[in-house]
Amino acid sequence: MEKEAKVVVGVDGSDASVQALRFAAQLAPALGAHIHAIACWDFPQMYAGYVPPDFEAFQAAATKTLAESLDKAFGPDAPEGISQELIRGPAPAKLVEAAAGAAMLVVGRRGHGGIRGMHLGSVSTACVSHADCPVLVIHSDSSHAAHHLWRGHKAKGENTGMA
Description:
The chain is α/β, with parallel strands linked by helices. 33% of the residues lie in helices and 20% in strands.
């Protein structure tokens, strides 16, 4: 029996991850895939060895973040067949692991603007570097609208010098 194709989306509650969900909804039908939204949660390092962690509180926060992100992205019109999962562990490793064999992995990158904004974050960099499927990184701010990775494409009002 053949496994159904999926587009894995990393969800952390940021505007970029909400945009990633929306973009995945546009891509999934073309890829013959369903959306699999994943929220990763782990304990901050400051808890290690000092305070017994409250598993339920961390998991509840991740559950709430995932639900709110899906609601922001789609409201009552969520795509058919969308699935969701909470995974405990560091997001970079867990997203790469969850995307094994996926049609695509979509993650958001929080915009910082200026020089910092031109760099990918640690999660998106790890996903791009280690995933065995195509990875799409969605920027949350509009300052990246004119940055293109292919020749000949121009943004509104941009002159590429090509005839």
